[in-house]
From TrEMBL:
The protein's name in its UniProt record: Aminodeoxychorismate lyase
Catalytic function, reaction form: 4-amino-4-deoxychorismate = 4-aminobenzoate + pyruvate + H(+)
Job description of the protein: Involved in the biosynthesis of p-aminobenzoate (PABA), a precursor of tetrahydrofolate. Converts 4-amino-4-deoxychorismate into 4-aminobenzoate (PABA) and pyruvate.
SUPFAM superfamilies, sorted: D-aminoacid aminotransferase-like PLP-dependent enzymes (SSF56752)
PANTHER family noted in UniProt: AMINO-ACID AMINOTRANSFERASE (PTHR42743), AMINODEOXYCHORISMATE LYASE (PTHR42743:SF2)
Quaternary structure note: Homodimer.
Keyword annotations from UniProtKB, A to Z: Folate biosynthesis, Lyase, Pyridoxal phosphate
Species this protein is from: Stutzerimonas stutzeri
Origin organism lineage: Bacteria, Pseudomonadati, Pseudomonadota, Gammaproteobacteria, Pseudomonadales
Keyword check for Lipid metabolism: no
């Protein structure tokens, strides 16, 4: 199931800048019973990204199209892509531009329930995230760093990969955000240089604060990660996966991780 600018379609025009240059943004959205989970967070991040890339977007139009598409989809994953539209050869953005809105529907990934229940081991990727503050936090279409990182392992014993920046700081997973617990405080990586500001990450930070938990965004070294009391990953499709192993380090599934799984459980229910 796919729509382009509100109409059923088979794909984008071949001269679209999203294909040529990755000139655009996307959101990967959980849909339950025809309704969007974390709708406002997804639209807020997309709008922020469009402002930073100077892509004009009508948020009300996006909201209405997304609601209609997800109602038709019913259950699964909606991928919303906004590109700058078509243009002539060359990097210079067309003036004015005519953005394209692409919606793609698919089933929910069949993640094993054991990932959330028993935890996962993660692979330490050699591919590093480039530091580009102008793109940090937004979900732009260029995901080649993640493609290279995910190609580094094939062993099913690893459910995710750990990504660091070029200075060696811990940033995130290949398709998730990372949290760790130290002395009862919740820490997550600062995303001022690179990385994606996930909507589940933001939701966890807000809900943890409402529970009276201290939440800190800071630079995290690899050594600090290995010394953490608990580690978990999150995204908007699977919620929270406890991390139980990285290289030689082994963690238990900790009490704060379990508490936060309960706190966000409503976002993962089928009702």
């Amino acid at each position: 199931m796919s729509w382009l600018n509100g109409q059923p379609c088979d794909g984008l025009p071949v001269h679209d800048r999203g294909l040529a240059y990755g000139d655009g943004l996307f959101e990967t959205i959980r849909v339950v019973g025809g309704r969007v989970r974390l709708l406002e967070r997804h639209l807020r991040r997309l709008e922020d990204g469009c402002q930073r890339l100077a892509i004009p977007v009508d948020t009300d139009q996006l909201h209405n199209e997304l609601a209609q598409f997800c109602q038709a989809l019913g259950q699964g994953v909606a991928k919303l892509i906004v590109t700058r539209g078509t243009g002539q050869r060359g990097y210079a953005p067309p003036q004015p531009c005519q953005p394209q809105r692409l919606l793609l529907g698919s089933p929910l990934p069949a993640y094993p329930s054991q990932h959330a229940e028993s935890g996962i081991r993660i692979f330490s990727c050699e591919t590093r995230l480039a530091e580009q503050p102008r793109l940090a936090g937004i979900k732009h279409l260029n995901r080649l760093e993640q493609v290279l990182a995910r190609a580094e392992w094939h062993d099913p014993a690893f459910a995710e990969g750990l990504m660091r920046d070029i200075s060696g700081r811990v940033v995130e997973g290949v398709f998730s955000n990372l949290f760790m617990v130290v002395g009862g405080e919740l820490l997550t990586a600062s995303l001022v240089r690179c990385g994606v500001a996930g909507v589940m990450r933001a939701e966890i930070m807000d809900r943890a604060s409402q529970q009276g938990l201290a939440v800190i965004e800071s630079d995290i070294s690899y050594t600090e990660l290995l010394q953490a009391d608990e580690v978990f990953l999150c995204n908007s499709l699977y919620g929270i996966w406890p991390v139980t192993g990285l290289a030689e380090r082994v963690w238990p599934v900790g009490p704060l991780t379990r508490k936060l799984q309960v706190v966000v459980a409503d976002l993962l229910s089928d009702s």
